Amino acid sequence: MSQLHSGWAVFWAACLGGALVELAHWWRLRPRKFPVYARSPRYWIITVLMVLSGGGLALLYYAPPAVFQSILALHIGASAPLLIHKIGGQLPATDYHLGDGEVTGGIRAFLRG
Fold this sequence. Notes:
Blueprint: E1 3-4, H1 7-29, H2 41-61, E2 68-69, H3 70-88, H4 107-112
Antiparallel strand pairs: 1-2
């Protein structure tokens, strides 16, 4: 099992976990038409923030000079976007606007995926 010895290694391994969750989201959408929201810069900013949230969560667990298992960092990184999606599904419906003024189903629908 691979061990991580620095905060940066933990962060990037966890970001990989978050990115895998986002990749799974896109894999699930593959038979359908390309979603309109995917053309919005706001969507991609939120996606990057979701991936980075996994790295940030793993850093909260990491206490140098401890050694961190890479699979643990990956799991923690994957859990952050999943938790945010789950919590987002519990939010009340609120409309949000994409850059072109289009009103969509709300942040709750966006986070639910």
